[in-house]
Amino acid sequence: MTAKPDVDVAILGGGIAGLWLLARLKRAGYSALLIESEALGAGQTLASQGIIHGGLKYAIDLKLGQDSAMLADMPARWRACLNGSGEIDLRGAKLAAEHHLFWARRTLASRVAGFFGSKLVRGRVDALEQANWPEALRDPENVGAVYALDECVLDTSSLVATLAQLHAGCIKAGRAQVADRGNHVVLDVAGRSVTAGQLISTAGAGNEALLPQLGLPARAAQRRPLHQLLIEQAPVPLWAHCFDTSDKPRVTITTHRKQDGTLVWNVGGLLAENGVQQSEAELIAAARKEFAALLPKLDFSRSRFAGFRVDRAEGATADGHKPDGPVLQRKGRITLAWPTKLALAPQLADLVLADLPPPSGATQADWPDWAAPAIAPAPWETVSWK
């Protein structure tokens, strides 16, 4: 008679996707274990700007595609969790901003107004009167219109901490070697052996190491790099996309606080995509030029700058562009899972749970002498400022 596995499901990777999946599995009655090889949130999660996208960013070229539709329900779903009425209780997570903003340069204001006034997006965006524009954007000579999107922004460090606290005893540190034995999966972690009925890897770039075991080529996964810009002692808080003639935001700005309270901007968008080919010094020079053009009245004389690189690890697409939604690759008892966007972690969990056998009803195994991983520091706590 075959012995029952130690847990129904093992998860590799302690970013938002893995932590969210763990919470959903436990709520559904599964015994589960999450193993993190570095620190919780390390890599993509804490490099994320924390925006719970509703898809309007991807309609910046004035059309709504499948990726926009995939994200449309996410803000309401996350907000329900943040107020304690959703599938996971996230009341401990901090909201950085109620609404991410979208500003159009003066020359494009009428074009954007036509789109945001259409039936396609009605109820998902509100035009702000000039009196309600944030301080950073009170520059009508350069800023033509400002809109509040139905997209909140989260403090990702507090989000990771809140999710980790929900089932802290089920989260362990270590690097796992994995083998599918047919009737269960074996994970060897520093000499410790764990058996699981199913393995779900949400390890981002770490998923690539498991591709050969699934008989998949390296091209089944992809990475899209970014060179994000950080600005310490930013002049004022701001959470906003800047719209220009491209189909992508010229800059996407979110505001964070260092542990000492210092204000930091995390800047993405085309600046970060174009920055992949630039050195840190070149990125900083490009950023200074951008902000002189976009928001010339802001004073950055006391600010310090830094760049940090991060890969957006994803399931592959034929053209190498962003997938429309979460991607799952499964063979036997092993599933590789990529959420594509932080905001889509709930949908990734939906897809995984829909494909699992029912819970075994077995008692959750316990490993009291197995250490838990720490929470990773945010990038702005570790960079060298210039």
List keywords for this structure.
D-Amino Acid Oxidase, Chain A, domain 2, elongated, 386 residues, FAD/NAD(P)-binding domain, alpha/beta, 8-stranded mixed β-sheet
Helix content: 10-25%
**Which fold name is given in CATH as the topology of the largest domain?**
FAD/NAD(P)-binding domain
Strand content: 25-35%
CATH homologous superfamily descriptor of the largest domain: FAD/NAD(P)-binding domain
Query: Quick one: CATH class of the largest domain?
Result: Alpha Beta
Summarize the main sheet.
8 strands, mixed
Number of helices: 9
Extended strand count: 18
Q: Can you tell me the residue ranges where pLDDT is under 50 for at least 5 consecutive residues?
A: none
Overall description:
With 386 residues, this protein is of the alpha/beta class. It folds into two domains: 7-45 and 158-221 and 316-381, FAD/NAD(P)-binding domain, CATH 3.50.50.60; 96-153 and 223-314, D-Amino Acid Oxidase, subunit A, domain 2 (D-Amino Acid Oxidase, Chain A, domain 2), CATH 3.30.9. It is 21% helix and 27% strand. The chain contains nine helices and 18 strands. The protein has helices spanning 16-27, 44-47, 66-71, 74-82, 109-116, 156-166, 270-274, 280-294, 345-354; strands at 7-12, 32-36, 95-97, 101-105, 125-127, 143-149, 153-154, 171-173, 176-180, 185-189, 192-201, 221-232, 240-243, 251-257, 263-268, 304-315, 327-331, 334-338. The strands form three sheets. Strands 1, 2, 8, 9, 10, 11, 17 and 18 form an eight-stranded mixed β-sheet that branches. It has an eight-stranded mixed β-sheet with strand order 5-6-4-13-14-15-12-16, sandwiched between helices. The mean pLDDT is 93.
